[in-house]
Amino acid sequence: MSEAGKDLREAAARKGSFLQTLKAVAWAFFGVRKSKGYQDDTDRINPIHVIVAGVLGGVIFVVTLVLVVRWVVASGAGA
Predict the structure, then answer these.
(1) Which residues contact 18 (CB under 8 A, 6 or more apart)?
(2) 19 with 51: CB under 8 angstroms?
(3) For labelling alongside 61, which of 28, 44, 67, 68 has CA 20 to 30 A away?
(4) Does the structure show a pLDDT above 70 at 12?
(5) How far apart are CA 76 and CA 78, in angstroms?
(6) Phi and psi dihedrals of 77, rounded to 5?
């Protein structure tokens, strides 16, 4: 097995919880994170969880924006 394959398997075996991953992704969406927190996240969380949480967060963000725009347009605030 190649070195990259070993690294990927090791990273995927990390025991960080999905809740920790959601919290890290939320901080990433917000755009503010202390370097200590970032280092803790990179040592603990599973990269597969990061991908799932990132996609989920992106979908929630887009749906929220669409709903807000529909609400504003329906209320006639632009007229």
Answers:
(1) 49, 52, 53
(2) no
(3) 44
(4) no
(5) 5
(6) -70, -20
